[in-house]
Write the structure tokens for this entry.
Amino acid sequence: MRSHRLSGFGRAFHLKCARAHAVDCLADYKVSESVRSEHTVKYVPPYGVFPLYFSLIARRPCIVETGISVRRWSLRTARTWRQPLRPGERTSGTGKPVSNSILLSLPDAEYRRIRPHLQFVNLPHHENLHEPGRKLKFAYFLNTGMISLILVGRDGKSVEIGVTGKEGFTPIPLAIGLKISPHRAIVQVAGEGFRVNVAALDKLLQSSPLFQATLNRYAVVQGLQVGQTAGCNRLHNLEQRLSRWLLLTQDRVDSGSLEITHDFLASMLGTDRPSVSLTANSLQKKGIIEYMYGGVKILNRKKLERSACECYEVIHQFDGEFARQLDQRNGFGAMRSARSG
């Protein structure tokens, strides 16, 4: 039997498993208090999160009555079911932890349909995920890293118009059944995640209304970001745009150190390498960043926010509202699932 990670609901318990089905990794846990009543947990999801029933157990030693040897578990501080699932509390069919916000927000029933179709992928720096005008093969849901959406002109010049991290997915046209995209998608910051075959995604969306609604909402948020970025590239100076880009990237990779070259930054910002170097040196002299060959380190985020144009705050607001919607649904969805388990 696959061992399940236990969420904490008190002090040390003596537990042993009452029954488990190896195929589905489901188990019944009959838990008795040392004095009187008992509680039975009828279902443990295959991605390893215990239902709400454990929160009903008194904080005293208890025992699960089976024929399997007793094992001691240390159960740490309780976490209420109104809080969103944390990264790693769901896994793919091959046991890889899930950190993508969209996948974590889905109800249990819909996630169980999607889970077998999640193919784990490593995403190295500069990997090209899809080209403009070509048939799309996969949807990508990142755990870590960042993807840039690139607009490519006929003359070969390019500019970044949007970014996606673990908060979303790409390519956006798949949310409404389109099989081509007008943009190129490149891995800007190396990471990992999952991909789903387009044919499988189409079937899943037909039977998973909340999954469909979530992708639609993210498509709207991404469209707002693209429009704001287009205006930013036209109206604001390079220092403001570089500051905005660094802030958006840090938000998605949770790190102040970013591996990026002058040339790639120039391509993302629609300018030339010497201009990027001059602008980065200016920010470095102000003590905002440390710029070195092949990377940037953010030293003072508050100053960087003041250096950016208003576009960062607008995009950040869109992202924040989408995240709050996911968190709210996630918390209440987990609670409902626990009650029906």
About this structure: The chain has three domains: 12-80, 101-231, 236-313. The radius of gyration is 23 Å. The domain at 236-313 is CATH 1.10.10.10 (Arc Repressor Mutant, subunit A). The first helix runs from residue 101 to 105.
